[in-house]
Amino acid sequence: MDIHEIIKSAIVNQKEYVGETDIRVAIAESISKCCKEVVSVFYDCPMTYLDHDGNYKRIRVDILTAFNNEIIPIEIKYRTKKKEIHITPNYKVMLCNQMAYDDGGYGFFKDIERIQNIVSAHEDAREGYVIFITNDDKYLSAYPGKSDYYEDFWINEYVLGKNCSETEVLRGTVNGDEKKVTLRGNFKVGDWVSQGDLYWCVASVSKTYTL
Question: Considering only CA atoms, which of 196, 192, 193 is closest in space to residue 157?
Answer without folding.
Answer: 192
